[in-house]
Amino acid sequence: MKDTDMITDRDNALFEAGIKLGALYHQFTGSPVNLKTVKSLEMAIQESISVQPFARDITVSIDREAITSKVNGEFGYCELEGRMLDVRITICYKTIMADVSLAYDLELDYPLMKIDKVYSSNQS
Amino acid sequence: MKDTDMITDRDNALFEAGIKLGALYHQFTGSPVNLKTVKSLEMAIQESISVQPFARDITVSIDREAITSKVNGEFGYCELEGRMLDVRITICYKTIMADVSLAYDLELDYPLMKIDKVYSSNQS
Amino acid sequence: MKDTDMITDRDNALFEAGIKLGALYHQFTGSPVNLKTVKSLEMAIQESISVQPFARDITVSIDREAITSKVNGEFGYCELEGRMLDVRITICYKTIMADVSLAYDLELDYPLMKIDKVYSSNQS
Amino acid sequence: MKDTDMITDRDNALFEAGIKLGALYHQFTGSPVNLKTVKSLEMAIQESISVQPFARDITVSIDREAITSKVNGEFGYCELEGRMLDVRITICYKTIMADVSLAYDLELDYPLMKIDKVYSSNQS
């Protein structure tokens, strides 16, 4: 067996980090929202994902300006879109911590998920 | 054109009521939840659906006992299931009010959506 | 008890119709899709909703032009949005049939759900 | 900067793998399904996730026995649950391939996502 074949804590930390972002995105986008209700939606997303395995820390922020520009004039609400989300998650898997994020990438015109930092759970 | 073909406020009130329950159910079931986070999830569901057209009033209650019995021993959370939900919605469409609900029906073993009351928006 | 308080087959037909559209919308919007996969997504949505109570007939059509214009240049796919959907559902509740639809309303800039026709299940 | 801080292709492969499984799970669980429609749902899930970035290969299999045991006697369908899913995904991120899976773990009573193999994209 080659070295590359061993699955490490680091591998699992990144894998778990991806799961949380994919889950969050596809569970909550589409939710009806407006400026009056955005706070409770942020809170619920944050708390919901925080109960999942290996999630150490999570902050969820929804772009108020994007909501304002998307709210339907007739009906007074819009749907939560991926590009409105700014999410930061820290995963701790045994010896390894991983910071990952979801944020709208203007250049790619895409809600981009990426790895920000990987480090030992001893340093932090 | 026969009388039956005319679409009434009452028809629309019931149609809108169904939309809200179907939307809520399929948007939010599957959300990770435990006893510490259930309150924020209830609040978010309630506020999210309240912004939709013709929704006058809504209360969402998630069954704590069902959560307790479903929480995974290893991981400390479960997913929101339809049968954990007790939802009451009042729709107001012009002259008509409709009270509808979603609640677990033990006999049918089914999260049942039903019409509870239809009445004039003048009486209420 | 006044006449208005009695819940009729017609009420239930419209209520059930609303449930199906709300369910479909919030279950499937957000699904990754492109022109190569749109057919299987249409089929799955159609068949999935067809198993629900009182659904007699359903057709689901996803707007290819909308997909083409939304597909991300870098990644080659987009998400299913409500405004890409054209859905026709016929509900049969005992004596009553109801035809309802979901289609993008250009003027309202909104994926509009509406009642198209209500009629006796004997005439059809 | 320490070695551990550099983000590698391997990190990204695992991160992307997790995203796909989390997304798939929370997008499609809850879908109404029975034995007649299970095939089209499998196909749609498979094709939908296949369009996402870095997804090289994916197979989705839904447990027919689990559906049979869960189908509601009165209504003839059930909802897709995570524990009904057996999913295998191969991610290719530049030089690295990762095989991951979602399958019901009987002992944990949990739909477990895990890393099966990580290897160079040259060997395969």
Q: What do you see in this structure?
A:
4 copies of one chain form a homotetramer. Chain A is α+β, with helices and mostly antiparallel strands and about 120 residues long. Chain A has one domain (about 10-120): 7,8-dihydroneopterin aldolase (MptD) (Pantoate--beta-alanine Ligase, Chain: A,domain 2). In chain A, about 30% of the residues lie in helices and about 35% in strands. Chain A is built from 3 helices and 6 strands; from the N terminus they run H-E-H-E-H-E-E-E-E. Chain A has helices at about 10-30, 40-50, 65-70, and strands spanning about 30-35, 55-60, 80, 85-95, 95-105, 110-120. In chain A, a hairpin with a 4-residue loop joins strand 5 (about 95-105) and strand 6. Chain A is elongated, with a radius of gyration of 17 Å. The interface of A and B includes residues 37, 43 and 47 of A. Chains A, B, C, D: It is an enzyme of class 4 (lyase). Chains A, B, C, D: Keywords: Lyase. Chains A, B, C, D: Homotetramer.
